[in-house]
Design goal:
By secondary structure, the protein is mainly α. It folds into two domains: 87 residues, RNA polymerase sigma factor, region 2, helix turn helix motif (Rna Polymerase Sigma Factor, Chain: A, Orthogonal Bundle), CATH 1.10.1740; 98 residues, Arc Repressor Mutant, subunit A, CATH 1.10.10. The protein contains seven helices and no strands. The longest helix has 42 residues. The chain is globular. The protein starts with a helix and ends with a helix.
């Protein structure tokens, strides 16, 4: 890289902060942990910037982000074993301005989505989330993951098929519960 490492770091940070934050979400990082993981990613970037060859910044950052999300999950799992988990996770707390029923329904939908996504293989899940939720193109995903574009489309095809199959199974077994909750929520808002 160039002569001024501080300026180079600042340029990478400013240009890629939002992308790194989105990738963390796509990789399954919790919303409550996102800021901490972003910070860890850029600490690694700062430490390793002098050794980086400057080719494919997006791919380099994506690999660092993937490792940091993985490591953060492992540390959280170990902490869970020893602390028996907090009674309230920050992601479970209601957001200001929403009714308790709406907040509960939103949280339940997020829980179901995360549970369904967790059943996908990591490579397929990441591709699915980056494409379907984050809105990246197949070419962007290929560049990030350093894989051929056709591999992106193959992973996306299999991920969609598996996701919709899992969603159909969930709906078949829990459909009545979901509809009852939605009816109660609508009735509460009418009052």
């Amino acid at each position: 890289m160039g002569q001024n490492p501080r300026a180079e770091f600042r340029a990478i940070y400013d240009a890629w902060f939002d992308d790194v934050s989105r990738w963390i979400r796509a990789l399954g990082g919790l919303e409550a942990d996102r800021d901490d993981i972003v910070q860890e990613v850029f600490l690694v970037v700062r430490r390793r910037l002098s050794a980086f060859d400057g080719v494919n910044v997006a791919g380099w950052l994506y690999r660092i982000t993937t490792r940091q999300v993985r490591d953060f999950r492992r540390r959280a799992w170990v902490k869970h074993i020893f602390t028996r988990r907090r009674s309230q996770e920050p992601d479970v707390l209601a957001h200001a301005g929403t009714s308790p029923a709406a907040a509960l329904e939103r949280k339940e939908e997020q829980r179901v989505l995360q549970a369904l996504l967790a059943k996908l293989a990591e490579s397929r899940r990441t591709t699915f989330v980056l494409f379907e939720i984050e809105g990246l193109s197949g070419e962007e995903i290929a560049r990030l993951q350093e894989i051929p574009v056709n591999t992106v489309w193959t992973r996306l095809h299999h991920a969609r098929r598996q996701f919709f199959s899992l969603a159909a199974k969930y709906q078949a077994t829990h459909g009545n519960d979901v509809n009852r909750r939605r009816d109660r929520s609508m009735e509460t808002t009418r009052r």
